[in-house]
Amino acid sequence: MATIIKGKELAQKIRLNLKEEVENLKKRNIYPKLAVIMVGNDSASAVYVRNKSKACNEIGIEYEEFLLKEDIKQEQLIKLIEELNQRTDIHGILLQSPIPNHLDIREAFNTIDYRKDVDGFHPINVGKLVIGQDCFVSCTPAGVIKMLEEYQIPIEGKKAVILGRSNIVGKPLAQCLLNKNATITICHSKTQNIEEITKQADILIAAIRKTKICNSIYGKRGGSCYRCRN
Questions:
Q1: Looking at residue 96, what is its pLDDT?
Q2: pLDDT per position as a tens digit, 182-218
Q3: Annotated catalytic residue 96
Q4: Residues 4-13: pLDDT tens digits?
Q5: CATH architecture designation of domain 139-228
Q6: Of the candidates 17, 11, 56, the residue with the CA atom closest to the CA atom of residue 34
Q7: 171-177: long-range contacts (C-beta < 8 A, 24 or more apart)?
Q8: Which of 116, 117, 119, 158 is catalytic?
Q9: Is 119 a catalytic site residue?
């Protein structure tokens, strides 16, 4: 039997809780602030950045945006990040990806102070995730775990299959599920017998940039990014 997860309703519930947490912080004279860096004019990134601004405004987090030109040099990007690292009024730094090809995104991510790395991409946060320590976790994997927990879908002891092995979603999601005592299989472009593997899954998550991937595997029976087998 499939479980339908209503992400928008859960997101609204989380925002209400966060709003209360932010108000409590302000009572202690702590005013959380997020800095978002966007390089170039990628249309999808512009939407994401706009949504982040709206979310911050909704829950009371201060927000500062840095819109950089497409032809910015690597040294200029790194300098900005270093300046934000030093600013005591900035508690979180987010570099919106993708960025232009002439820039080294890995160096940029690594420059962000891991204590302000809200995207969880810094090697220290990745390492802490692997050994099960408290850290910032990539937003999509963290969201998947939150949804499974909110709907009381058992994770421990279950077979979880992830389609995709990206550093942003697939790999950290596998570690998140492993930390919850699931048994993990990751499928990717070189995996053989994907249909056979996914049919064994108690939890199936599509984490690749391809729509209706489950349809292509299961035909008309599929279509969900998440599947719970009972």
A1: 94
A2: 999 999 989 999 999 999 999 999 888 665 555 555 5
A3: yes
A4: 778 888 889 9
A5: 3-Layer(aba) Sandwich (3.40)
A6: 56
A7: 172/120, 172/126, 172/129, 172/137, 172/138, 172/141, 173/138, 173/140, 173/141, 173/144, 173/145, 173/205, 173/207, 175/129, 175/130, 175/141, 176/129, 176/137, 176/141, 176/142, 176/144, 176/145, 177/145, 177/203
A8: 119
A9: yes
Computed over every residue of the chain, the mean pLDDT equals: 90
Query: Mind giving me the DSSP string for 190-227?
Result: T-S-HHHHHTT-SEEEE-SS-TTHHHHHHGGG---SEE
CA–CA dist 12, 174 (Å, integer)? 26
User: What's the pLDDT at 208?
Assistant: 80
What's the token pair of residue 59?
């829950």
For 192, the token pair is 């053989």
Number of residues written out for the chain: 230
The CATH classification of domain 31-130, taken from the options 3.30.1490.20, 3.30.870.10, 3.40.50.10860, 3.40.190.170: 3.40.50.10860
Catalytic member of 26, 27, 42, 96:
96
CA distance 120 to 125: 6
